[in-house]
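Standup notes
- DV: blocked on the single-chain target, sequence here:
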Amino acid sequence: MTSTNLSPWVERSALGALAVLGKGGQGRVWSVPDTFKINKEWPVVYKEYDSGVLPGVDADQLQRMVTFVPGLPAKAGRWLCEQAAWPARVVCEAGQARGFLMRRIPPDFELQLPHRHGTAVTRPAGLQYLLNPDDYLARMEIPIDDRLRRLLLANLAETIHRFHQLGIVVGDLSPNNLLFQLCDEPRCFFIDCDAMRLDGRSVLKQAETPDWEVPRGEELATTASDAYKFGLLAIRLFARDQAVRDPALLAAVSPEMAALARRSLAPQPQVRPRPADWLPELRAVARRAAGGLGGGGPAPPRFTRVGPRQPTGAATTPLPQSLVPPRPQSFPPSPVAGKALWGRQAGLAIVILVLLICGVGLVGRLTGSDAGSASSAPLVPAGSSDLASSARAVPTASPTVGIVAFDAVTDQPAARAVAEMFARWFSAINSRDWNTALRAYDPAGVVDPSDPKQRRAFIHGMSSTQDSDATLRALSSSGAEMLAQLTFTSRQSPGYGPPRAPNETCTRWRVAYRLSHSDAHGYRIVRPRDVESSPC
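- DV (later): unblocked, structure below
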């Protein structure tokens, strides 16, 4: 893309009517009228940093990212914008950078997920969906087999390799920041690109997604850290598991891939293979798979009983990158449908409390989560990822966060914080962002997120749930303990209903959750105190 005289800055007031799409760990994402487009063809959204984040924003580096693409050769610039929601304009207000415009998630990178009651729901195609067992993927109607996994991984390897050639390091490489498209030639699309490092500098202090950290003490956001996390992603993609780290699990797919993964996880950064070093084997294995039977390849034996988990071609015609703001239009917000959770009888180690998780809301109630974000799906995920999605706008006038209404407790100082925690939790479970959902639990309570058996039991129990209509009805505190009374509706597959009626597919829950609080983690779920359920 050729550079232009267009300023890299735009006033917030010039964007016109905005509507909230989602909220993440750093701020909010807003829809922008379609009169604003990149290259006169790609709709944009606006990511606005929270006031507490702004002091740490390097506005000069953000502007460098914005001017980086127009300074590239046309073909390279367009390629980058087809792989990533790269910052396109710095948005300022009163002379201060507030955020930036970026490309809206392309429709090709969204999923139509089945819903038992009503039409399919649209969600960003977060890569975390693919880190789930085959039976979950079948229920979600995500048609992937091991050949497509190899091709998807090859596309990711090629993309990261070209990033590195351009001086870009992903840094926080995790499923929270990656979307996928499944077709004859699967593709990936990066979001939250302001977290990337360009020419050795970052807009914000580098951070890592839990369970995707490099070895302690290692420098963050380097080509070696990208190599480490690429190997981790390869293992988890084929293991259908979001937390494993054993390279031997790839041996059933390809001994050469297992060896590459082992080197990728080496504590010595200098011995790790580059993502591009994976390409010959990935392509060879994909070619061999293409000559075999169609359909899904088997998961490594160790994980077969874990339970449910979950093209645009590059144009060669040079197009100037430009944001063309004609008269702005107003887009009225429409509510985002909520999601449901439910639990299922899990393991002996988690005892009766995890058995309660058998009910959709039960897991949530019993294993509560502070994965609360007033946004839909993953990307944001919940978690550390800010959602740049084309989901519906969330109304902000009423005392509601995500799917959680808290009108009844607005006089309580902790009301909004508790509602936000539950909203993030519901959002994470509905989007299958298990890492974020599990962070809502206090390890001293009913679910210890660091225990692999409990993690798997939790994921298995919550895999078919969609929650909605949550209301925070009462809050009370006694010393360090907070009790939150919550009602909500869950819909789940037969066999995953509450203990009194396992085949029930729609359940109305009333649960009192015991919560803990700390400055470091905010509110987290310890355990349910009282649980009641009835059919819808």
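- Follow-up: The first strand starts at residue 9 and ends at 11.
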